[in-house]
Amino acid sequence: MPTVSMTVNGKAVSGDVEGRTLLVDFLREDLRLTGTHVGCDTSQCGACVVHVNGEAVKACTMFAAEADGAEVGTIEGQANADGSLNVIQQAFQDHHGLQCGFCTPGMVMSAAALLKENPKPSEAEVREYLEGNICRCTGYHNIVKAIMAASGQDVAIAAE
Ligand code: FES
Ligand code: FES
């Protein structure tokens, strides 16, 4: 079995994987980073979104071997250094951007990638960016509000 090595949340890790092992399974099963969720088997839900070399990636669409040598970020690495919620996580809490919470890690990771490339997105841009993330509770409105708030913009502009 090939050995893969990568940096996950700033820590060097390695493991033996089969060629078909998905990155999401490596993270969840081998590294026990279970905050990255699996919500479908069709690459549609976005519950598995992580960062690979700074880009939002659905971890169910990538083999672990393809992430060899990469910098990977998961929801477990998103909190501030003192353990407090980061600005996006805090905004989700403040604006009720989660219901069951299953989609939330993927939403937060997608939001972080969006705000990195577009720090002041319009509401329409937020909604478009989240197209690959499904919330089965249909809590999108508050999720969008949370992301707008995290970007420092007036949440009142988000449509009801
Ligand atoms: S588990 Fe990856 S998109 Fe659904
Ligand atoms: S909060 Fe339940 S699926 Fe999104």
Write a concise synopsis of the structure shown.
This is Carbon-monoxide dehydrogenase small subunit. The protein has 160 residues and is of the alpha+beta class.
Q: How does this model look, in words?
A:
Residues 2-78 form the 2Fe-2S ferredoxin-type domain. This is Carbon-monoxide dehydrogenase small subunit. It comes from Yoonia litorea. Keywords: 2Fe-2S, Iron, Iron-sulfur, Metal-binding, Oxidoreductase. Pfam families: Fer2, Fer2_2. By secondary structure, the protein is an alpha+beta fold. The chain folds into two domains: 3-77, Ubiquitin-like (UB roll); 87-157, DNA polymerase, domain 1, CATH 1.10.150. It has helices at 23-30, 87-94, 104-117, 123-129, 140-150, and strands at residues 3-8, 11-16, 49-52, 55-58, 71-73. It has a five-stranded mixed β-sheet, sandwiched between helices. A hairpin with a 2-residue loop joins strand 3 (49-52) and strand 4. Helix 2 crosses helix 5. The longest helix is centred in the last third of the chain and has 14 residues, at 104-117. It is globular, with a radius of gyration of 16 Å. The termini are far apart. The model has no long low-confidence stretch (mean pLDDT 95). The structure holds FE2/S2 (inorganic) cluster (FES) (2 copies).
